[in-house]
Design a protein that fits this description.
Keywords: Amino-acid biosynthesis, ATP-binding, Cytoplasm, Kinase, Nucleotide-binding, Threonine biosynthesis, Transferase. With 307 residues, the protein is of the alpha+beta class. Helix content is 37%, strand content 27%. The protein is built from ten helices and eleven strands. Strand 5 and strand 6 form a beta hairpin. It binds adenosine-5'-diphosphate.
Length: 307
Protein backbone atom coordinates (compact mmCIF):
# COMPACT_ATOMS: atom_id res chain seq x y z
CA UNK A 1 0.00 0.00 0.00
CA UNK A 2 1.47 3.35 -1.09
CA UNK A 3 -1.40 5.72 -0.41
CA UNK A 4 -4.02 6.10 2.29
CA UNK A 5 -7.01 8.40 2.79
CA UNK A 6 -8.11 9.13 6.35
CA UNK A 7 -10.92 10.74 8.34
CA UNK A 8 -9.30 12.74 11.17
CA UNK A 9 -11.95 13.39 13.83
CA UNK A 10 -12.65 16.46 15.90
CA UNK A 11 -12.52 15.97 19.67
CA UNK A 12 -13.89 17.55 22.84
CA UNK A 13 -11.30 17.94 25.59
CA UNK A 14 -11.63 19.31 29.15
CA UNK A 15 -14.93 17.50 29.61
CA UNK A 16 -16.26 19.46 32.61
CA UNK A 17 -15.09 17.58 35.76
CA UNK A 18 -12.50 15.93 33.47
CA UNK A 19 -10.74 19.27 33.02
CA UNK A 20 -7.31 18.62 31.50
CA UNK A 21 -7.67 14.82 31.64
CA UNK A 22 -10.83 13.62 29.87
CA UNK A 23 -11.74 13.93 26.19
CA UNK A 24 -14.01 12.33 23.61
CA UNK A 25 -13.93 11.67 19.89
CA UNK A 26 -16.64 12.95 17.51
CA UNK A 27 -17.95 10.91 14.61
CA UNK A 28 -19.47 13.41 12.22
CA UNK A 29 -16.94 16.24 12.32
CA UNK A 30 -13.41 15.93 11.01
CA UNK A 31 -10.77 16.64 8.37
CA UNK A 32 -9.57 14.40 5.56
CA UNK A 33 -5.95 13.60 4.92
CA UNK A 34 -4.21 11.76 2.08
CA UNK A 35 -0.74 10.35 2.70
CA UNK A 36 1.52 8.92 -0.03
CA UNK A 37 4.85 7.14 0.29
CA UNK A 38 7.67 8.96 -1.47
CA UNK A 39 11.29 8.08 -2.26
CA UNK A 40 12.44 11.35 -0.77
CA UNK A 41 13.10 11.27 2.98
CA UNK A 42 11.04 13.50 5.30
CA UNK A 43 7.54 14.93 4.96
CA UNK A 44 6.23 17.34 2.33
CA UNK A 45 2.82 18.96 2.61
CA UNK A 46 1.72 19.33 -1.01
CA UNK A 47 -1.79 20.73 -0.55
CA UNK A 48 -4.04 22.22 2.12
CA UNK A 49 -7.67 23.09 1.41
CA UNK A 50 -10.28 24.62 3.72
CA UNK A 51 -7.88 26.68 5.85
CA UNK A 52 -4.97 29.03 5.55
CA UNK A 53 -2.29 26.98 7.29
CA UNK A 54 1.46 26.74 6.66
CA UNK A 55 2.73 24.22 4.09
CA UNK A 56 6.19 24.20 5.71
CA UNK A 57 6.70 20.88 7.49
CA UNK A 58 8.15 22.47 10.62
CA UNK A 59 5.30 25.01 10.96
CA UNK A 60 2.42 22.56 10.56
CA UNK A 61 1.41 20.20 13.39
CA UNK A 62 1.00 17.36 10.88
CA UNK A 63 4.58 17.90 9.67
CA UNK A 64 6.02 18.11 13.18
CA UNK A 65 4.13 15.04 14.48
CA UNK A 66 5.00 13.06 11.33
CA UNK A 67 8.70 13.97 11.56
CA UNK A 68 8.77 12.91 15.23
CA UNK A 69 7.49 9.47 14.17
CA UNK A 70 9.85 9.25 11.15
CA UNK A 71 12.87 10.11 13.31
CA UNK A 72 11.88 7.35 15.73
CA UNK A 73 11.43 4.79 12.94
CA UNK A 74 14.58 5.90 11.08
CA UNK A 75 13.13 5.30 7.59
CA UNK A 76 15.00 5.51 4.27
CA UNK A 77 11.97 7.03 2.52
CA UNK A 78 9.37 9.71 3.27
CA UNK A 79 5.78 10.83 2.73
CA UNK A 80 3.71 13.47 0.93
CA UNK A 81 0.50 14.69 2.51
CA UNK A 82 -2.63 16.57 1.54
CA UNK A 83 -4.75 18.07 4.31
CA UNK A 84 -8.39 18.92 3.69
CA UNK A 85 -9.51 20.94 6.72
CA UNK A 86 -13.11 20.95 7.84
CA UNK A 87 -12.44 21.75 11.52
CA UNK A 88 -11.77 25.45 12.00
CA UNK A 89 -8.50 26.23 13.78
CA UNK A 90 -9.03 27.74 17.22
CA UNK A 91 -12.60 26.47 17.51
CA UNK A 92 -11.89 24.41 20.62
CA UNK A 93 -12.70 21.06 19.02
CA UNK A 94 -9.19 19.86 18.36
CA UNK A 95 -8.31 21.20 14.92
CA UNK A 96 -4.57 20.79 15.38
CA UNK A 97 -5.00 17.44 17.15
CA UNK A 98 -6.92 16.02 14.15
CA UNK A 99 -3.89 16.68 11.92
CA UNK A 100 -1.38 15.42 14.50
CA UNK A 101 -3.39 12.23 15.05
CA UNK A 102 -4.08 11.68 11.33
CA UNK A 103 -0.47 11.78 10.20
CA UNK A 104 0.84 9.36 12.83
CA UNK A 105 -1.99 6.85 12.36
CA UNK A 106 -1.68 7.13 8.55
CA UNK A 107 2.08 6.58 8.42
CA UNK A 108 1.76 3.67 10.85
CA UNK A 109 -0.95 2.10 8.62
CA UNK A 110 1.18 2.54 5.48
CA UNK A 111 4.02 0.72 7.24
CA UNK A 112 1.80 -2.22 8.27
CA UNK A 113 1.19 -0.96 11.85
CA UNK A 114 4.57 -1.50 13.54
CA UNK A 115 3.29 0.48 16.54
CA UNK A 116 0.11 0.14 18.60
CA UNK A 117 -2.25 3.11 18.40
CA UNK A 118 -1.46 3.95 22.04
CA UNK A 119 2.25 4.11 21.21
CA UNK A 120 1.55 6.81 18.59
CA UNK A 121 0.23 9.32 21.14
CA UNK A 122 3.64 10.81 22.18
CA UNK A 123 4.49 11.59 18.52
CA UNK A 124 1.16 13.34 18.00
CA UNK A 125 1.85 15.29 21.21
CA UNK A 126 5.01 16.68 19.56
CA UNK A 127 2.73 18.19 16.93
CA UNK A 128 0.38 19.60 19.57
CA UNK A 129 3.36 21.25 21.20
CA UNK A 130 3.78 23.38 18.08
CA UNK A 131 0.18 24.64 18.31
CA UNK A 132 0.01 25.33 22.04
CA UNK A 133 3.59 25.23 23.41
CA UNK A 134 2.61 22.53 25.88
CA UNK A 135 2.68 18.74 25.73
CA UNK A 136 -0.89 17.69 26.15
CA UNK A 137 -2.75 14.55 25.10
CA UNK A 138 -6.35 15.38 25.92
CA UNK A 139 -7.27 15.95 22.23
CA UNK A 140 -4.81 13.63 20.44
CA UNK A 141 -5.61 10.66 22.72
CA UNK A 142 -9.34 10.52 21.83
CA UNK A 143 -8.53 11.39 18.18
CA UNK A 144 -6.20 8.36 17.98
CA UNK A 145 -8.00 5.85 20.23
CA UNK A 146 -11.64 6.92 19.83
CA UNK A 147 -14.36 6.93 22.50
CA UNK A 148 -13.61 8.67 25.79
CA UNK A 149 -10.00 8.78 26.97
CA UNK A 150 -8.56 9.62 30.36
CA UNK A 151 -4.98 10.84 30.73
CA UNK A 152 -4.22 9.27 34.11
CA UNK A 153 -0.61 10.43 34.12
CA UNK A 154 1.83 12.35 31.93
CA UNK A 155 5.01 11.11 33.56
CA UNK A 156 5.00 8.30 32.64
CA UNK A 157 2.29 8.78 30.00
CA UNK A 158 -0.70 6.58 30.76
CA UNK A 159 -3.89 6.95 28.74
CA UNK A 160 -6.96 4.85 29.49
CA UNK A 161 -9.71 4.31 26.92
CA UNK A 162 -13.13 4.39 28.52
CA UNK A 163 -16.20 2.65 27.24
CA UNK A 164 -18.70 4.92 25.56
CA UNK A 165 -22.42 4.28 26.16
CA UNK A 166 -24.14 3.65 22.83
CA UNK A 167 -26.94 6.20 23.18
CA UNK A 168 -24.76 9.24 23.91
CA UNK A 169 -24.83 12.06 21.37
CA UNK A 170 -22.94 15.31 21.43
CA UNK A 171 -24.15 18.74 20.37
CA UNK A 172 -21.57 21.46 19.83
CA UNK A 173 -22.07 25.15 19.23
CA UNK A 174 -19.07 27.02 17.87
CA UNK A 175 -19.50 30.78 18.24
CA UNK A 176 -17.29 32.62 15.77
CA UNK A 177 -15.19 34.49 18.30
CA UNK A 178 -11.59 34.02 19.32
CA UNK A 179 -10.63 32.72 22.76
CA UNK A 180 -6.88 32.62 23.11
CA UNK A 181 -5.77 29.41 24.82
CA UNK A 182 -3.08 31.44 26.63
CA UNK A 183 -5.75 33.79 28.08
CA UNK A 184 -8.04 30.88 29.00
CA UNK A 185 -5.06 29.41 30.91
CA UNK A 186 -3.91 32.64 32.54
CA UNK A 187 -7.29 33.46 34.12
CA UNK A 188 -7.33 30.19 36.09
CA UNK A 189 -6.23 30.29 39.74
CA UNK A 190 -2.90 28.59 40.42
CA UNK A 191 -4.33 26.91 43.51
CA UNK A 192 -7.82 25.72 44.43
CA UNK A 193 -9.47 25.15 47.84
CA UNK A 194 -9.55 21.56 49.07
CA UNK A 195 -13.38 21.64 49.02
CA UNK A 196 -13.35 22.51 45.32
CA UNK A 197 -10.89 19.71 44.55
CA UNK A 198 -13.04 17.18 46.43
CA UNK A 199 -16.13 18.22 44.45
CA UNK A 200 -14.23 17.89 41.17
CA UNK A 201 -12.73 14.45 41.79
CA UNK A 202 -16.03 13.18 43.23
CA UNK A 203 -17.73 14.19 39.98
CA UNK A 204 -14.97 12.72 37.81
CA UNK A 205 -15.26 9.38 39.62
CA UNK A 206 -19.05 9.56 39.17
CA UNK A 207 -18.71 10.32 35.47
CA UNK A 208 -16.33 7.42 34.81
CA UNK A 209 -18.60 5.07 36.76
CA UNK A 210 -21.64 6.38 34.85
CA UNK A 211 -19.93 5.77 31.50
CA UNK A 212 -19.05 2.17 32.39
CA UNK A 213 -22.47 1.32 33.82
CA UNK A 214 -24.41 3.33 31.19
CA UNK A 215 -26.10 5.23 34.01
CA UNK A 216 -27.17 8.34 32.10
CA UNK A 217 -28.57 10.14 35.17
CA UNK A 218 -25.26 9.67 36.98
CA UNK A 219 -23.40 10.96 33.91
CA UNK A 220 -25.65 14.03 33.97
CA UNK A 221 -25.21 14.69 37.71
CA UNK A 222 -21.46 14.34 37.38
CA UNK A 223 -20.93 16.63 34.38
CA UNK A 224 -19.94 19.67 36.41
CA UNK A 225 -16.76 21.70 36.45
CA UNK A 226 -16.09 23.77 39.55
CA UNK A 227 -12.43 24.39 38.65
CA UNK A 228 -12.19 26.04 35.23
CA UNK A 229 -15.72 26.79 34.02
CA UNK A 230 -16.54 29.50 36.61
CA UNK A 231 -13.63 31.56 35.22
CA UNK A 232 -13.58 30.57 31.56
CA UNK A 233 -17.31 30.95 30.94
CA UNK A 234 -16.84 34.72 31.12
CA UNK A 235 -14.85 34.55 27.87
CA UNK A 236 -17.82 33.02 26.01
CA UNK A 237 -20.86 35.25 25.37
CA UNK A 238 -24.21 33.67 26.30
CA UNK A 239 -22.55 30.66 27.97
CA UNK A 240 -24.99 30.64 30.92
CA UNK A 241 -28.00 30.99 28.61
CA UNK A 242 -26.84 28.18 26.31
CA UNK A 243 -26.30 25.92 29.32
CA UNK A 244 -29.69 26.78 30.84
CA UNK A 245 -31.54 26.17 27.55
CA UNK A 246 -29.62 22.92 26.91
CA UNK A 247 -30.41 21.50 30.36
CA UNK A 248 -34.06 22.62 30.19
CA UNK A 249 -34.39 20.76 26.89
CA UNK A 250 -33.07 17.47 28.13
CA UNK A 251 -29.27 17.64 27.81
CA UNK A 252 -27.49 15.51 30.43
CA UNK A 253 -24.76 18.12 30.83
CA UNK A 254 -23.14 21.10 29.18
CA UNK A 255 -19.70 22.68 29.39
CA UNK A 256 -16.85 24.37 27.57
CA UNK A 257 -15.15 22.33 24.84
CA UNK A 258 -11.37 22.53 25.11
CA UNK A 259 -10.53 26.07 26.13
CA UNK A 260 -13.50 27.42 24.16
CA UNK A 261 -15.16 29.14 22.47
CA UNK A 262 -17.15 25.98 21.54
CA UNK A 263 -19.71 24.71 24.04
CA UNK A 264 -20.61 21.01 24.15
CA UNK A 265 -23.65 19.16 25.49
CA UNK A 266 -24.02 15.42 26.07
CA UNK A 267 -27.44 13.92 25.38
CA UNK A 268 -29.13 10.56 25.68
CA UNK A 269 -30.51 9.97 22.14
CA UNK A 270 -30.13 11.66 18.79
CA UNK A 271 -33.60 13.19 19.10
CA UNK A 272 -32.67 15.05 22.29
CA UNK A 273 -29.35 16.15 20.79
CA UNK A 274 -31.17 17.57 17.74
CA UNK A 275 -33.74 19.29 19.92
CA UNK A 276 -30.97 20.81 22.08
CA UNK A 277 -29.16 21.90 18.88
CA UNK A 278 -32.27 23.74 17.67
CA UNK A 279 -32.86 25.45 21.01
CA UNK A 280 -29.26 26.63 21.51
CA UNK A 281 -29.24 27.95 17.93
CA UNK A 282 -32.07 30.26 18.99
CA UNK A 283 -29.90 31.70 21.79
CA UNK A 284 -27.08 32.67 19.42
CA UNK A 285 -29.48 33.80 16.68
CA UNK A 286 -30.44 36.68 18.97
CA UNK A 287 -26.81 37.90 19.00
CA UNK A 288 -24.72 39.38 16.21
CA UNK A 289 -22.17 36.54 16.56
CA UNK A 290 -21.98 33.97 13.76
CA UNK A 291 -21.96 30.31 14.82
CA UNK A 292 -22.04 26.67 13.69
CA UNK A 293 -23.93 23.88 15.42
CA UNK A 294 -23.08 20.19 15.06
CA UNK A 295 -24.70 17.02 16.35
CA UNK A 296 -22.58 13.89 16.45
CA UNK A 297 -22.35 10.37 17.76
CA UNK A 298 -19.24 9.45 19.70
CA UNK A 299 -16.70 7.81 17.38
CA UNK A 300 -15.32 4.65 18.91
CA UNK A 301 -12.45 4.21 16.43
CA UNK A 302 -10.48 7.45 16.37
CA UNK A 303 -8.82 8.22 13.01
CA UNK A 304 -10.55 6.12 10.34
CA UNK A 305 -9.03 4.69 7.15
CA UNK A 306 -11.31 5.69 4.25
CA UNK A 307 -9.31 3.92 1.51
P1 LIG B 1 -8.48 24.00 18.54
O1 LIG B 1 -8.75 25.23 19.38
O2 LIG B 1 -9.60 23.68 17.61
O3 LIG B 1 -8.12 22.82 19.41
P2 LIG B 1 -5.83 24.47 18.21
O4 LIG B 1 -5.79 25.72 19.02
O5 LIG B 1 -5.42 23.21 18.82
O6 LIG B 1 -7.27 24.31 17.61
O7 LIG B 1 -4.89 24.67 16.95
C1 LIG B 1 -4.90 25.77 16.16
C2 LIG B 1 -3.48 26.33 15.95
O8 LIG B 1 -2.59 25.36 15.37
C3 LIG B 1 -3.53 27.49 15.00
O9 LIG B 1 -2.64 28.49 15.47
C4 LIG B 1 -3.02 26.91 13.68
O10 LIG B 1 -2.42 27.89 12.87
C5 LIG B 1 -2.01 25.88 14.15
N1 LIG B 1 -1.83 24.77 13.20
C6 LIG B 1 -0.68 24.38 12.62
N2 LIG B 1 -0.87 23.31 11.81
C7 LIG B 1 -2.19 23.00 11.87
C8 LIG B 1 -2.99 22.01 11.27
N3 LIG B 1 -2.51 21.11 10.42
N4 LIG B 1 -4.29 22.00 11.57
C9 LIG B 1 -4.81 22.92 12.43
N5 LIG B 1 -4.10 23.89 13.03
C10 LIG B 1 -2.79 23.94 12.76
Amino acid sequence: MNEIKLFCPATVANLSCGFDVLGLCLEGIGDEMIIRKSNEKGIRITKITGADLPLETEKNVAGVAGMALLNHLNLEFGFEIEIHKKIKAGSGIGSSAASAAGIVVGINELLGNPLLRKELIPFAMEGEFLASVSYHADNVAPAILGGFTLVRSYDPLEVIKIKSPKDLFVTIIHPHIEVKTSEARSILPKEIPLKTAITQWGNLGGLISGLYTEDYELIGRSLQDVVAEPYRKNLIPEFDNVKKVALENGALGCGISGSGPSIYTLNKSYKTAENVANEIKKVYSKTKIGFDVYTSKICDNGVIKLK
